[in-house]
Structures are given as C-alpha cells and as structure tokens.
Batch of 4 targets.
Target 1
Amino acid sequence: MSYRDLDVWKRAMNLATAAYRIAQSLPDTERYGLAQQIRRSAVSVPSCIAEGRSRLFTREFARFLAIAMGSLAELETQCLLAGRLELTREPIDPVLRSASELGRMLQSLRKSLDRNSALQETRPNR
C-alpha cells in the first residue's frame, strides 16, 4: 500500500490546498511572513506522512506522524492568528475543523502504530 492510498494523507492534501487558499488571500505585506509560514506548515503535514510511510520500519513511520502533528499544530496556530488579525478574506473555520479531524486521525494512527511497534520492529511496514 502506497502513502497515496492512506485516507490520512488524502485529507492532509485537501487541508494543504485549503491552507494555500488562505495564504493567497492574505495581504501582500504578509507574502514573506505569515503566508509563507502557512504554506510551509501545510506542505509539511502530507509530506511527513508520505515520507514516514515510505520508511522501512513502523517506528520510523510513527516518528514522522509525530512531526506531522507538530506541523498541523503550527498550521492551526497560524490560521488562528490570521483570523484574529482579520488578515484573510477566506474563512478559517472550515480549515480549523479539518485540521482538528486530521489531528484525531493522526493521533489514532500513531497510537495504533505504537501498539504494534513491538511486533513490527523487526519487519518492514509494507
């Protein structure tokens, strides 16, 4: 199974697309500030899922999921800040709901991997 088959990766890609729309709606003064940070953290989430899934061992996948969760928290914070500062023309609530749901999915997958890591530690995660 490829990372592209994972629902969590597909949702992360959808979230990244929505986050890019928010970044594009920010004023030009934020092009190299908040907009760039939003894009970076948004790209990091599906990228970490893909990289982790492509690693050889389950434990490594779990570590990359933890990194994706950190990037997701960054993205949520940046979107909340854009909303508080009234910088975006795009609504942030749908992105925040999607991020919350994705966070639960990542946490659940990571817990599942952690439970199975003792069994999987010597076997590839493929």
Note: The chain has one domain: 3-120.
Target 2
Amino acid sequence: MPRYDFEIVGELEFIETIARGSGVRIRRFLSEQYGRGDWRKRKGIALVRFSDGRINRAEIHWFEAHGVGRVLQKVIREID
C-alpha cells in the first residue's frame, strides 16, 4: 500500500524513468494541477523518515516536469 506521510532524509539513488509522454496516464491531471510540461513518472531509492519516526530505505515513485519539479511522491515499498 503506498504511503504519502514521509520525508526524504537522504539522497535519491538509482533513479529511473518509468513512463514519459503519453505513457503517463494522469498527464492531463498533472498539467491542469501543476502546469504544462514534459511529464515523466520516475522511481528511485532513498532514506526516508516516516510519520511514526522510523527511518528506513524505500522505493519512491513520483512525477516530474522541467520547470515544475517533483510532485505526488509516494513510498511503494520499504527495503531492508
């Protein structure tokens, strides 16, 4: 189950693009909400602090566009 209540406390590593252009299914929503751009769905690994105070490495997914930055970050799974 994705989690949205976290803070990234380390560097993002192993960043990959999962989808871009028409492959980003919520592209229309992203453009209406955050502005037009070349939207990409990306993933990476980072050290995160959860709302309960735990710190762990996790796989994170997010959307980003040039000039807008990262939006809608979520933890997909914890690692370790």
Note: Strands lie at 6-8, 13-20, 40-50, 55-65, 69-79.
Target 3
Amino acid sequence: MTTSRPGERDQRPGERGDLLDPRCPTRHLLDRIGTKWTAMAVKVLAEEAPGELRFAELRRRIPGISQKMLSVTLQSLVRDGLVARRVEPTVPPAVHYRLTELGLSLEGPLSALRVWAETHMPEIDRNNQLADESTPN
C-alpha cells in the first residue's frame, strides 16, 4: 500500500530523508524536539540518568519555565516515548520522570548541538550586530 502522491515516493524506515520533503523524518523530529524547553528537559533528565526527578525538581532546574510549559513539554516527551512517567499513589500523588533508552539516545545529538552553539554563537551574534549596524533606520 502506498501513501505517496503521484510523482512522490514512500519514505522507508531507516532511509535518509529529504529535509525539503514534508514527510522527512528530520522535519518531524525537529517539530517535536526543536524547542529550548525540550532540549533543557532532556539535558536535566540525562544528568540524573538512570535516576528520576519529580516535577517540582525539574521546574527548579530549568530556569524560566512555567508550570504549564513544563507540563506540556513532559506530556509530549512521554507521548513520544522519550520520557517515562511514574506516579506514586500518595496524597498528593508524587510524579517522577526519567529518560527512556530512546530519550537517552537523544542526549548525544543534543549535546553536540550545544557544543556547536557554544562554539559558533559568538560569530553569529557578531554577524547579526554587523547586519543591524549596516541596515539604515
């Protein structure tokens, strides 16, 4: 069974995608994990791996995140299978989060991206400053 339109081809599992193609796996992944909050949550949970963190501790370790945004981010990560959620039946319930094996495998690429950013953001910032200075008001 084919799901592609005429002139298009199906994406096979493990096949390298075309970033310009809406079906590209990279595009789908970036849609899911491309936020700063997701990257921060994965980093914080990776630092604790294989252990768990409670919601309040995660919020404390991620500066600037609201309770709602952390909740939405964690729900998305749990849905994608990158984070596991465990609820202790206490009053109030104690909710714990940890990275799954799949989530742990994401930490390496995100770490490489952080290294690239730390190396190159000063140059990008300088280029932006030069562009701003050369743009007439």
Note: The longest helix spans residues 101-134.
Target 4
Amino acid sequence: MTEVKAEGNILNSEKYPDIKDNTINLAIPCHTDEEEKQTIDSFKSVCNIDQFNQFRIKHHLNGYFTVFQQKL
C-alpha cells in the first residue's frame, strides 16, 4: 500500500483510535443520515448485526464512514 498522507490511513491508531487492533472492519462511506440508515439496513439483511460493533467515523480526507467491527 502506498500512503501519500498519514491521515489517509484508516489503520493509523493515532488518527482513528476507534479502529482497534485485532479486529475486522468494514468501513462504508456514508455522507448523510439517510445513507447511514440504508447501509445499516442492507448490512442487517446479510448478517446478524448484533455481533458487530457499529459506529461512525470521520475520515480526515474523505468524510464520514459507517464502520462495522468484529474482534478476532
């Protein structure tokens, strides 16, 4: 992976502390509340959402993402 700016790396724990070590993360862009609701509804239709930690983060360069996280 080539990294132009360190802020762009979503695995940078200093910039994105919610992305924890030893986890699997699915980060989906969502710039509005409606997009976030649609993303959550779609995710619910394919897996048991209760098994995942779900939260929203603001990427320093690309805006908001909904993240589904599961500890390994």
Note: Strands lie at 23-29, 53-59, 63-71.
